[in-house]
Amino acid sequence: MLAYLIRRLFAAAVMLVVIVMVVFGIFFLVPKWAGVDIAASFVGKQADPASVEAVREKLGLSDPIYSQVWEFFKGIFAGRTYSGGGDVTHCAAPCFGYSFRSEQAVWPVLTSAFPVTLGLALGAAVLWLVFGVAAGVLSALKRGTIWDRGAMVVALSGVSLPIYFTGMLSLAIFTYGLHWLDAQYVPLDQSIGGYFGGMILPWITLAFLYAAMYARITRATMLEILGEDYIRTARAKGLTEPVVIGKHAMRSTLTPLLTMLGMDLGALIGGAILTESTFNLPGLGRQVLTAIRNQDLPIILGVTLITSLAVLLANLVVDILYAVIDPRVRLS
User: Fold this and answer.
1) Of 12, 151, 206, 275, which cross-links 124 as Cys (Cβ 3.0–4.6 Å)?
2) How many CB atoms lie within 10 A of CB 126?
3) What is the pTM of this model?
4) CA torsion, points 255, 257, 263, 268, in degrees to nearest 10?
5) Are 276 and 197 in contact (CB under 8 A)?
6) Domain 107-319 belongs to what architecture?
7) CATH 1.10.3720.10 spans which residues of the chain?
């Protein structure tokens, strides 16, 4: 197990370097090859030539490419100092960039919005895992029954309906119609009850989409596994049905679900833009939309980095869980 863990950590470290270099290429090299003035992009369209030249000097855009890559990479772990145009700006580690439009480092902006998106992603993930997997397992065990067909119709509806539609519909019914729930976001440190009251609708709306997909995948996987020889052997040995399903069939069913969870959860931590916009949540998704409207490129760069790192971390956790669920993974 230790050797497997070391291999996965090494692979994650290599992937981290690749991610940083790819993000650097997308934001600095590709625009340059396309003839775009990168410094003007970081300052904004209304900037004067002197400001653009100062930012070009601060970012070191005239330096060799390897020097720019090193400064960009080093800034994430050791901080970075931007000097040029007569002033010096220090960005403390981890430096995910500096917004020259708002004169603030990107990392504090991200950390202020990150808990909102993290709470949204984790809360929705718990709901869609519990209800999606349970619905898929029951549909597989009751194949062809009214429950099976009804659950799959609901799952198909969840996959088909966009989040902004179900979100607005839930707001219209439960908040503005029945007045059961408050749509106002309240930080967790201010009021636990207010936080859960304001987040329950976003959780359910987001979980409805993903629970539908997880239910369909769970049903298809479970039906395939129930026909395997080792399941028939377990039943022939006299094991009870809960033991056969819970101990044997579910372990094999969880493997593809964990793969989906790693990607979905990582992407959601990067910013559930539609859900946060629908419910007016001050998370990373809203920061991205605000940055796009203001053409604040460093914020977009920072969110891109944190999204990539979230997907990397989520998949690392999934790889470790693989080894716990299926010991054969450690030997592959």
Assistant:
1) 206
2) 12
3) 0.82
4) -150
5) no
6) Orthogonal Bundle (1.10)
7) 107-319
Asked whether 95 and 80 are in contact (CB, 8 A), the reply is yes
pLDDT digits (tens, 9 = 90+) for 8-53: 788 888 888 888 888 888 888 888 888 888 888 787 666 678 878 8
How far apart CA 332 and CA 330 sit, in angstroms, is 6
Instruction: Please name which of 149, 125, 127 lies closest in space to residue 138, comparing C-alpha atoms.
Output: 149
Q: Which amino acid is at 86?
A: G
Interhelix angle 192-226/146-160, rounded to 10 degrees, is 120
pLDDT per residue over 244-292, tens digit each?
A: 888 778 877 887 888 788 778 777 776 577 888 888 888 888 888 888 8
Contact (Cβ atoms closer than 8 angstroms) between residue 210 and residue 128: yes
Asked whether 148 and 226 are in contact (CB, 8 A), the reply is no
Q: Tell the residue number behind the tokens 């370097």, with chain if given.
A: 17
